[in-house]
Design brief:
Blueprint (H helix, E strand, L loop, with lengths): L1 H19 L1 H17 L8 H15 L1 H6 L15 H36 L14 H31 L6 H36 L1
Length: 207
């Protein structure tokens, strides 16, 4: 089960980090628009569309990644004081009552929305450049699917916590632990190498 949970975590992480590269496109589009608009007095007809499409795609596809990192905003002033089993019971109830129905509705409505947009190759109505927006709308049901997968993983974590009395590790917890171990190992190796160098230096000076 741990391998399955880590697989879902890694999938959400890969998707989130892959779409994070759109920040470069967003930065280029906005910077170029500012340059040509205020320096050359020749604003583009596509920069606005590119900026909101890039931002929208990042926002959509980062949802599952953020959920995998337990990074969504929560008012946990009371939650943090509870025992893990109480936290898991509350989370499980909220996932079943709110999260699963909401994501199912998101996928259903998003699929119809994306299908219509793709069928007539929808373009932006905000500029004469005719920038296609149907790829962005196609991400809506895909976002819901990734959220559903990550939500299933979170529900399984709640069940495990209810049984064992403690939260199971997340993928980034394991990664951070491995990083600490590697860092400490490298530090010890560096210390050993320095000690060997000092011994060789003393042996050379003695001879």
């Amino acid at each position: 089960m741990t391998k399955f949970l880590f697989f879902i975590d890694s999938l959400s992480t890969w998707v989130g980090k892959a779409f994070a590269w759109l920040i470069l496109l967003l930065t280029f589009g906005v910077s170029y628009e500012v340059l040509v608009r205020y320096v050359f007095r020749a604003p583009t007809t596509w920069a606005f569309d590119v900026s909101y499409i890039a931002y929208g795609a990042m926002f959509l596809m980062a949802g599952a990644y953020t959920l995998s990192r337990n990074g969504h905003v929560r008012a946990d002033m009371i939650y943090r004081l509870w025992q893990p089993r109480v936290q898991a019971a509350m989370d499980l109830a909220l996932y079943i009552i709110f999260f699963l129905p909401a994501v199912a509705a998101f996928i259903y409505s998003g699929w119809n929305y994306a299908e219509r947009s793709i069928s007539y190759r929808e373009v932006s109505i905000f500029s004469p450049a005719g920038v296609p927006v149907f790829p962005l709308k196609a991400l809506i049901p895909l976002t819901g699917i990734f959220l559903l997968l990550q939500g299933i993983a979170e529900i399984i974590r709640c069940v495990i916590c209810l049984r064992q009395g403690q939260w199971p590790q997340r993928l980034h917890d394991v990664e951070e632990t491995e990083s600490i171990i590697l860092r400490e190992t490298k530090h010890l190796q560096d210390q050993e190498a320095a000690a060997q160098a000092q011994r060789r230096h003393r042996e050379g000076a003695a001879s």
